[in-house]
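Below is how a single chain appears once it has passed through the pipeline. First comes the sequence as given, then the structure the pipeline wrote out for it. We keep one example in the README because the format questions we get most often are answered faster by looking than by reading.
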Amino acid sequence: MIPAPELEKIGLKKEGKTAYELANGQVKEYPYGLARIEFMGEITAGRVIFGEDGCEPLLGVTALESIGIVVDPANKTLKRLPAIPLK
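Resulting structure:
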């Protein structure tokens, strides 16, 4: 999720809308677009949610896993996997 004005500024187009469950349990509908995502030197592509103005940018677990990075909740760190599991 990224503030909509920032995504519009770089020319990302809205492709559709879907409902998302927020961390507080509230369900809210947001538009999304499709984008190339680069993180920690790796590239993937995926849905990017057009968030409300001023929202905190958030990179989801799906994007991280698609480039072989997992969250270690015990240590609050990101870990690069030696290989991306296909199962």
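Residues 13 and 33 are 6 Å apart (CA to CA).

See the next section for the split statistics.
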